[in-house]
């Protein structure tokens, strides 16, 4: 095996896996995978980092940095985004408006989201969530959507398929607001640079502290929520201690009437009973009870049963106990599911209504979303499909993507090349072998550039 990997006398200091014949094999393999990979079920786009959660996270980070409100994930907007992506694939168009009069607002309304404000961003062909977000931020119209104070909710879908003859990944970002309430960036806090004037404290003033955020009864899905509050008639520097169920959590210093405590790590899920008190003084706030729920509903895919009849599919599955809304999205259609007394959801849907992709979207009371692609259950096959994905999809997941295969080959050659350079250097043969190393290195660099040439995309 050493003859294949490491330069030595036995292979005339030319590893078999770096000879011209081997490089020819690598080149042919790369051409076959990248040219005909789609025909054997290997997707072209490697989009593991382009996920709805990553897109939403980058959006909210950008808004928070500008002092804007963070957007809440709304299952209806998620369903609308999914339906829009499916419709672009089924009707083969790349635009905000479809060939049959489809509009972004149509998908949003059909999902049950009766908006006052709404917007949409589109992207395709990107390999990373950061690439999508940076492209949107570089476009004034897309940036206006991301940074708009008109929006309160967000829904994102990331769908892979063939569009206009090319395998690609579509990203649909939907924004909305059910009310006329808008938001503005927080005004920066100005530091006091002049000596404050002396004031006379009137007799009878009461020192107090209160918690302004979260509110009593809030159900919060952000486990990194900060505790905010105000004090009255407390001057100078002071410390605020935070207690949860009577136990010390932490403290924060302040010199103004406003204070904010950042725990520095995520709160555990569950009910919180928070009290704020001024350290060293008998000044306490009213107790604020709120609940943190940051986990999406846990869904058992093994519970799915899909039965076929001549005219329809009958879908049934066990519903998570914390599910508040359940939707089934297929093609450009969205169906709301109801739960029976035994905790099961059942839906009958005609064969004509099944689209290219079928997804179950489950949301809990806090707005945490879990999405489950069950497209494989509607492929041609057995009369009853129960908890077993198709062999085709399983094989496709094992194979990976054309990008993944290309990067694996390039990385493998780079490792071999590094070993060869090291051995030549140790034996003092680097100068004599410079020509051969240059040839292999140039080949490797050209292939590397070819692999990464498509790591960009288009926005709309």
TrEMBL record:
Question: What keywords sit in the KW lines?
Answer: Membrane, Transmembrane, Transmembrane helix
Read off the InterPro entries from this record. CAP_dom (IPR014044), CAP_sf (IPR035940)
| Superkingdom as given in the UniProt entry | Bacteria
Q: Which segments constitute the SCP domain?
A: 58-174
Q: Does the keyword Iron apply?
A: no
> Membrane-crossing residues?
21-42, 405-425, 437-459
Has UniProt tagged this entry with the keyword Transmembrane helix? Answer: yes
- What's the protein here called? SCP domain-containing protein
Its source organism is: Candidatus Dojkabacteria bacterium HGW-Dojkabacteria-1
